[in-house]
Amino acid sequence: EFQGASSLSSDGSWMTYTPQNSGLLNHRVLAVSFAPDGCLWFGHVTGISVMSPESNWFTASKEGLDYWDLEVNSIEFEQDGTAWLVAWPDGVYRVRPDGEVAALYTPYNSPVGLGIGFAIDRDGCKWFANDGGIQMLDAANENWTCYGPEDSGMLGFWVGCAKVDKQNRKWFSSSEGVAVLDDDGNWSRYTAEEMGMDDDDSYVWDIEFDRDGRVWFATLYCGVRILNTDGTWTGYKSIDSGLSNDYVTDILIDGQNRKWFASSFGGLALLVED
């Protein structure tokens, strides 16, 4: 059963938001992201809902875009407040701060495949990760560069997520491991075997970076894998940690360097390291 969204206050109390007590459009929340103006955006199977810093709820403009027919899986923002919505099955929407839809990128009018992962680097370039590989749209939203396994460090065409670290390196996951692209155009990669993923059906769902320089990977069936600063790999599985199961779908690292893990049908797990 889908319950909506929950928040944890600093005093340890929880607040759960549902369509009955808030402006959420649907119980099933697929994405949550803060906008530069402090508003909190929620992506649903039925569209978008937004909560202001004053806890007022509203929906984005429907002009040019029927949000209620979209499955919004990811939301990212530029510094000017422009929102990028990765929506199934349409593609990727660029929405101006006033709610007007500026563009829709689909396999029919651009190189992007069916949207899965999306990230914006510090230069303003947009990176799309999907079933067609990796595509980059420049900061001016004019020119595309496409990457496939034959001309990059990618491990297969299917790419699950895209993330950018503090060094502006781009990280991409696939069913066969992780590929990394630095600012000089050099690729490096880590195979599933190198990462210690011992299930042939496993792949990486999410990638996050902590303040100690470690890289954290949420995986299907193999729990959490960690790339340490010395290049070694460690990790956690449900059998030897507080993870409820090994199907980890998302990781959040908060301002206190605590790690939050979301798992399919297993709720949340919190790791506080000494």
What does this molecule look like?
With 274 residues, the protein is mainly β. Helices cover 1% and strands 46% of the residues. The protein has one helix and 25 strands. A four-stranded antiparallel beta sheet has the order 3-4-5-6, with no helix packed on it. The chain has a four-stranded antiparallel beta sheet with strand order 7-8-9-10, with no helix packed on it. Strands 11-12-13-14 form a four-stranded antiparallel beta sheet, with no helix packed on it. Strand 19 (204-209) and strand 20 form a beta hairpin. The chain is globular. The mean pLDDT is 84.
The helix-strand sequence is EEEEEEEEEEEEEEEEEEHEEEEEEE
Summing up helix and strand content along with how strands pair, one would put the structural category as mainly beta
Q: What is the overall silhouette?
A: globular
Mean pLDDT: 84
Quick take:
This protein is mainly beta and 274 residues long.
Which structural traits does this protein have?
globular, four-stranded antiparallel sheet, 274 residues, 1 helix
